[in-house]
Amino acid sequence: MSKSIQIFTIGFTQKSAKQFFETLSNAGVKRVIDTRLNNVSQLAGFAKKNDLAYFLEKIGGISYSHVLDLAPTQTILDEYKKQKGDWETYEKKFLQLMAERQIEDTLTPEQLDGGCLLCSEAKPHFCHRRLVAEYLHQKWGNLKVNHL
Description:
About 45% of the residues lie in helices and about 15% in strands. The protein contains seven helices and five strands, in the order βαβαβααααβαβ.
C-alpha cells in the first residue's frame, strides 16, 4: 500500500449528541462504520442504527454502514461483559475471530479511508474498535489511526 490511509475511532457513550456529531464533522470523517453487534437498543439513544444514519447524513453529510464482521460474537461479548471476563481473554478471542473472518480481505483500505469505526465504549483502551484498527494496521500497514 503506497498511500497512507486515515481512519478514526469513536465511542458514543459519555458524549452528548452535540459533542459526538461536532467531533466527527471537525475531524473530517466521511463515513461511520458501525462495529457494534447490537445497535438497535433503546439504550443507544441518538446512536440507534436508523436514527444515527439519518443524523449523520443530515448533520454532517457523513455516510453510515454497519459491518457485522467487525463486531464480536454474542458469546465473546457475554463472556466479557456479563460473566465479568478479563480483557486479555476477550482480546485474544476477538483477534482470533478477526483472523478467521479475514476482515483484511473483506474490507479494502479505500473503504476505510476517512472512515470512523464506531462502538459504544467512551475510550478506546478496552474496546474492540481499537483492536480492529490495530489488526488492520498490522495486516495492511500505512494506516493512521486517530481515536476521537
